[in-house]
Amino acid sequence: MAAGETNLICIRNASIGYGGRAVVSDMNLDITSGTIAALIGENGSGKSTLLKTLIKEIPPVSGSIEINGTDIARLSARDIARTMAVVMTRMVRPEYYTCFDMASSGRYPYTDRLGRLREEDRTAVEEAMKLTGTWELADRYVTDISDGQRQLVMLSRAIAQEPRLLILDEPTSFLDIRHRMLFAKAVKELADRKHIAVLMSMHELDLVRDMADRFIALKDGRIDREDSVDSLTDDYIRELFRL
Question: Are strands 36-40 and 197-201 parallel, antiparallel or unpaired?
Answer without folding.
Answer: parallel
